[in-house]
Amino acid sequence: MVKRKNTPRNSGATAANLGFEAQLWAAANALRGSMDAAEYKHVVLGLIFLKYVSDAFEAHRAKLEAERDQGADPEDPDEYQAENIFWVPPEARWSHLQKSARQPTIGRLVDDAMAAVERDNPSLKGVLPKDYARPALDKQRLGQLIDLVSNIHLSGGDNHARDILGRVYEYFLGQFASAEGKKGGEFYTPRCIVKLLVEMLEPYRGRVYDPCCGSAGMFVQSVEFIEAHATGNGNGGRARSEISIYGQELNYTTWRLAKMNLAIRGIDGKIEQGDSFTNDRFPDLKADYILANPPFNMKRWGGEQLREDRRWKFGVPPAGNANFAWVQHMIHHLAPAGVAGFVLANGSMSSNQSGEGEIRKNIIEADLVDCMVALPGQLFYSTQIPACLWFLARDKKNGRFRDRRGEILFIDARKMGQMVDRTHRELTDEEIQKIARTYHAWRGEKDAGEYQDVPGFCKSATLEEIRKHGYVLTPGRYVGAPPQEEDDEPFEEKMQRLVAQLREQQAEAARLDAAIAKNLKELGYDL
Length: 527
Prior knowledge:
Blueprint: H1 15-18, H2 21-30, H3 37-66, H4 77-81, H5 94-99, H6 106-120, H7 139-150, H8 158-180, H9 191-201, E1 206-210, H10 217-228, E2 243-249, H11 252-264, E3 270-273, E4 287-292, H12 323-332, E5 334-345, H13 356-365, E6 369-374, E7 387-393, E8 407-412, E9 418-419, E10 425-426, H14 429-442, E11 458-462, H15 463-468, H16 476-479, H17 491-522
Parallel strand pairs: 1-2, 1-4, 2-3, 4-5, 6-8
Antiparallel strand pairs: 5-7, 6-7, 8-11, 9-10
């Protein structure tokens, strides 16, 4: 079950009003020098993690000191482990490192601190980076970075400061993903995508699984979703239940990031390292919720060795594309009433290559597809490939919502989102809520309102309609075009206005041409 340290979230710790993450990132990035972002992220994130566990330890240690007369023992590791707080030995405490930050031996001291934390906390074994002493890492810059991390502490008490460390960690994950470009997408799914998946599926209670969990953003967001609704706001108090977390990640260094990301949030989950296809670490798991962002169009996934695998109930996926291997892997792990939401490349909605169309047809005819969402472009750091969201439901008549058998909801969100820089777009909170509310109303959630088709945005289609479209799941085929604004300007008036506008533009073009010709002539280039 998910365990949280006794560090209640402070309502003031939001991206909108923390206000210092960007400045902190700029300062940390300035210390990077020529080091590659993929390498530097482990240096920075490891230090933030060490600062977090040390702060949590020191806060609880102060509490135990104040309770000595009641029998508390600040030197007993069990006192900390009982509260789900990591025991930090003296040589690993942040105060010790900060005092030595400007010493030439600081790299070795940090390595020793990481090793000591792993030694005394078996759940972190093999997780923390331990190569700060390497010659290539400038020790003066390392000392400056330690001083910078030391300043991540605001008013509001130790609990609030540790919560901010978690937010800084998450912000830095996103910034490193952006800095790394395509490679960064392997460990980080944009927060707005994670939030949309979580808001739509509402994982309040049960087993949550991600077979390609990256840096564990799906799990962090799921727990944050529960806490945001913990008062029963809009959910009738359902959020008081707990969830169990199961994740698997192939890349070893990304798996380490995931373990640290959960630990810095005080979230306890089963995160395994390995290949979900060839070495499924949860073969018997049946999850209530599955959230995932698998690699798009993965070519080398071991398909040749898995032709007879029991997971391929709807057809053997092509050896050169893992999209429908991921889909069927997740279906295999769904509980009888389980639901799944995941990201795939747009090709998954319409491709008929190598048997993919037949697999998609079989999944549709099994009535497993609940909703399809077409996403806008430029949301991802790792690829410009257009993407979509699939939502599956094992049982559309299980009683939690209305009977949706024989229906699929299509949502076209391609025109949504706002550009946050020259290359990246994000969905706004209002847009996320609009999409989620549409899905909730369609599946008949209490207090979600009445669902209605909206031309150009959403459409509830029957299986018969989908058969007529050749089992293509592209929302644009179903939602139609948005209504056009009525133009009540008389035709003659419009033509006169447009002709006058054209003449003005032609006159301006002629003036510019004359000015250019004059300037060229003065330079000795007569046209």
